[in-house]
Q: What sequence folds into this?
């Protein structure tokens, strides 16, 4: 997978069921993890910029009370892009969505980070960066 990480990613944060301040703080911590990349997980630097214009966003992160993409609670993700060689695997990603569904506010940031890891190329949980590879970290302790 080729990450177009030189491109500035913009974020639209939808908040349902979590206070706006807490959702912003937790999402920001997950985004900061990937920007700082302390485990050298990403092949290149990446940065994020907030936008309120969802149509201008390259990356949309939202929290939903009802499971549009899951049978219960958790996180789902989708990527959009193109494959210049014509096979089903995308080589370039143009946009992505991460949706957190029905999780406690204490777990929101971890699920955002988990979903971002999957969007950025982890096909299996074992391929995720250390804070997100183990659901035992799925609470606010991973920020400390």
A:
């Amino acid at each position: 997978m080729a990450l177009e990480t030189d491109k500035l990613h913009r974020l639209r944060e939808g908040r349902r069921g979590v206070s706006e301040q807490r959702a912003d703080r937790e999402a920001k911590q997950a985004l900061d993890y990937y920007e700082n990349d302390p485990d050298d997980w990403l092949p290149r630097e990446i940065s994020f910029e907030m936008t309120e214009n969802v149509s201008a966003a390259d990356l949309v992160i939202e929290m939903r009370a009802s499971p549009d993409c899951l049978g219960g609670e958790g996180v789902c993700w989708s990527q959009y892009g193109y494959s210049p060689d014509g096979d089903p695997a995308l080589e370039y990603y143009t946009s992505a969505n991460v949706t957190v569904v029905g999780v406690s506010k204490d777990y929101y940031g971890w699920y955002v980070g988990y979903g971002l890891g999957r969007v950025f190329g982890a096909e299996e949980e074992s391929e995720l960066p250390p804070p997100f590879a183990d659901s035992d970290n799925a609470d606010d302790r991973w920020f400390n």
The two ends are 31 Å apart (CA to CA). The chain has a mean pLDDT of 76.
